[in-house]
């Protein structure tokens, strides 16, 4: 039995309720027919309209009032949500295909039953299934087009040493990137921390060649406080977290209330990191920042931190969808993933190495060293 959205197994009563909800509702279909030809409209990155690739018709996405924006993007109470499931209005069901390799759960069109995973290029063949989860509150629309993402990737690729020639051909070819909205948890919290440690101050003894640096330690203790706003945690495991962290920062001032029209023509990944696990990751990131605050508060030249006791209050969260362009390249039976921040153009990814190029470089370096040695002897 799969874990529920809050990281625990549903009991029999909850299971029956969920089954009833699935029987009475189908996963949302994000289809927006063109008013002129009936083809599906697609959101145009960087704009506020959808366009038809067949007849060129454009249809505006209505803007939201300030009141609706404030209401839609208002964070939810974290403790209350962890204690009991959210109301039905805060939930939705979407149809997903699950990758057995990287674990991604990606939404596909209703007619699709087999596809290639956009995250790791693994063939995905699975039964139709639905994913019931907390509904996204906000979406950060795509700003970069596919062509702009490819250009950013090609520029990043030029800086790679010893990359296989096939990777360069992949970047120059017609391989398209896949536009995906990736799920994130956004956390707010007030923190207060008491700390114990030691402050180290440099001093010197002796003189000349016998001059030595010493450290004079003294006890230090105190309190620090910090307000965290919109601390982001990726709510999926399909991409290495270190690469996702490197895509930051995101400008959340461009967030829009969740509107399926922004997703038209793109895919959306369902979250696979439950809210409690996401909060645990978020708290660990908060602890990193607080530790830096404590080190600065202790002062001196060096610090020893013996203990930090942190309490949190006002914990709130949002479920957001952030845009990335993803490509997966297969080299010698292994998948290598590349991801582009579709708002800023930041690129991160795994890279294969060409051992032939590395071997040639080592050989040339050895010949150069040998040649230099021969010239030195001749002189």
Question: How many H/I helical runs?
Answer: 8
Q: Structural class of the helix and strand makeup?
A: alpha+beta
What are the secondary-structure elements, in order, as H or E?
HEEEHEHEEEEEEHHEEHEEHEEEH
Number of domains: 1
Percent of residues in helices comes to 25-40%
- Gyration radius (Cα, Å) is 26 Å
Provide the low-confidence segments as ranges: 1-28, 353-358
What would the principal axes of the Cα set say about the shape? Answer: globular
Quaternary organisation of the protein chains: single chain
- Give the biggest sheet: 9 strands, mixed
Strand content: 25-35%
Query: What's the total count of β strands?
Result: 17
The average pLDDT value, as a whole number, equals 79
End-to-end C-alpha gap: 78 Å
Chain-wise SSE layout:
Elements: H1 12-24, E1 42-43, E2 49-51, E3 58-60, H2 66-72, E4 76-77, H3 78-83, E5 91-98, E6 105-107, E7 114-116, E8 123-125, E9 129-134, E10 138-139, H4 146-158, H5 165-172, E11 178-205, E12 212-234, H6 241-246, E13 256-257, E14 267-268, H7 275-298, E15 302-331, E16 334-341, E17 347-349, H8 355-378
Parallel strand pairs: 10-15, 11-14
Antiparallel strand pairs: 1-2, 2-3, 4-15, 5-6, 5-9, 7-8, 10-13, 11-12, 11-15, 15-16, 16-17
